[in-house]
Amino acid sequence: MSLAYFLHILQLLFLEQGHIVNMTKTERLATLKRQIERLESRAARRDERMRYYANQQVVTLLLGFSISVGGLLIFRPLGVLCILAAIIYFIYCRRKQVAFSDSVLKYRHLLQFYETQVARATLDWEHIPPVPPQRDQSDHPFENDLDISGEYSLHHLLNTACSHEGTLHLRKWLLNREPDLKTIQQRQTLVKELIPQTSFRNKLAFHSLYTTRYMQELFDARKLLLWLAQDEIPLPARYKMIVPCVLTSILLITLLLYVFGMLPVIAPILSALVSLSWSLFTLRDRLTLFEDAVFIRQSFEQLGDIFGFLERYSYREGSQLQQLCQPFTVSKEHKPSHLLNHLRRLAQMATFSRDQVGALFLNAFLPWDAYIANQLAHSKREAVEYLPQWLAVWFELEALCSLANFGYLNPEYTLPELLSEEETGEEPLLQGSELGHPLLDDAEKVTNDVTFASMGNVMLITGSNMAGKSTFLRTMGLNLCLAYAGAPVNARMLRTSLFEVYCCIRVVDSVTDGYSYFYAEVRRLRQLLSRLESKPRLPLFFLIDEIFKGTNNRERLIGSHAYIYALAGQRCVGAISTHDLELVSLEEELPQIGNYHFREHVIHGKMSFDYRLRSGSCPTTNALKIMRIEGLPINWPGSSHTLAQLEEG
């Protein structure tokens, strides 16, 4: 089982998948599941062959030993031939077992990739690889509110990166507070180009998965970059190269002269002692060199396969992908494969330093470590010039492939249209059709349309408990984050200006800082106004859920009125949800206010929601209905008439 044969199988698989670009999500899922079934069957056959050759080795040892002993006793040459035949067959079986074992391992990683694809498409969170935990930015205006990072988050769903830095790239794009139109458009172009290129994306993901198979965590380039930033390789100084060469020359000359009887034996002995002394003097450098060599070999063995794929891939001429990957192909003299293979060979040569006694004598007679250190220093200078650029391209590719894979698995999603400042005067600031929540299952998802016609517009959303107000706010926020990252959005159409997103949806109190929930909410709302007063480069898009819900009805109503007055007509747009039906009268006071609501229905004594956004204020409430359905008391003596009126309202 050669690697070329296995890659041929992969090529057939990926080409086959390339034909399903125009399929619906359901058809795509069915095709992925068929791929998994075929791969499981092929992996099982190769696993069976691997066990067969493992058993053959045992049989060869036992049977070969018996036949060889019998042959030696009957006719010695026959016994020798039997031993040779057994050794040859054992070696053959061993090689076949290793080949099939490697093939099985590759198939398992390919299976893991496809199974993860199905999990991402069906929101099977337990089978989507977790992202490394990152410290929350407590002052971030929407990270926690919109479930951007952490478990069961947008970042968790999208991330396909196998490197720590690629994961951070994606998270940074999703958390960007001040989007740039040119940057977003460049990413959109690459994502649009990458979505149908399943062969490229899947092979890159497979190479990354396979080369990091023995790592417990994601590939982290920080240690490698720190190694590049070090001043020098051990033993790089000029005198440390010259001295062992001179000592080796003197030793060889004295030995030669001694052989021809021109010098006494003491001369080569003294030369050898001087060389050994120098070897002892540089022992610490050799040990450090060995440690560096082991690290270099491990790092470049992981990177070599990935960079080799990016170097050899046939890019479409003039494509954005070709321009992005140009550092891998621009120079024939400085290809990643050339540098990485050279460093790998040097690292293997440096492993002789592991045996301190052997290395001591080896370096006494040859300038072995000095030569390796000199070559490493030369290669390191080349690596410093090119490796950071190669790594940066790989990290960006991983983040871009995460976005493209998200679009591929959700073919009904669309790339949004971003409006420039010149276009915002002619078009609505934001217009979305069939906007959906990307973290909800398709069977549970309800889409809605939304429009913000002009600056200063405020959408005031009323509605019953559980009717969908908070979900709708997050739907708008999540799709804006996707749009500004350069990703497809969960919408039939989204046309939007650039905004700075600001949320007050999930505010938590802080026991350590002594903040109550209400005070934490007030601080967040104050930060929003302060940001607005600072006249940021972009207008604000705010999302506020249940404004001032941490205080009593009277003060909440007063505060809400004042706060909405402060926002309306400013350089911002946004939506505020509330239970206070008294606030709907603001539509008559302020032309920028628009009333919207979500409605519930009671069918056969059970609450039912359609999660559809409607114009106007909510005509019903459901708190008492929910309490009554769940068996809580809602009456006391003499109160039935009032409660009946409340329920009717």
TrEMBL record:
Record-annotated DNA mismatch repair proteins mutS family domain positions: 456-645
Keyword Cytoplasm: no
GO CC term (a single one): cytosol
The entry's keywords: ATP-binding, Coiled coil, DNA-binding, Membrane, Nucleotide-binding, Transmembrane, Transmembrane helix
UniProt keyword annotation of Transmembrane present: yes
Origin: domain of life: Bacteria
Molecular function terms from GO: ATP binding; ATP-dependent DNA damage sensor activity; mismatched DNA binding
Entry-linked InterPro entries: DNA_mismatch_repair_MutS_C (IPR000432), DNA_mismatch_repair_MutS_sf (IPR036187), MutS (IPR045076), P-loop_NTPase (IPR027417)
Pfam families named in the record: MutS_V
Record GO biological process: mismatch repair
Coiled-coil zones: 22-49
Transmembrane segments: 59-92, 241-259
PANTHER family: DNA MISMATCH REPAIR PROTEIN, DNA MISMATCH REPAIR PROTEIN MUTS FAMILY MEMBER
Protein name: DNA mismatch repair protein
Taxonomic lineage: Bacteria, Bacillati, Chloroflexota, Ktedonobacteria, Ktedonobacterales
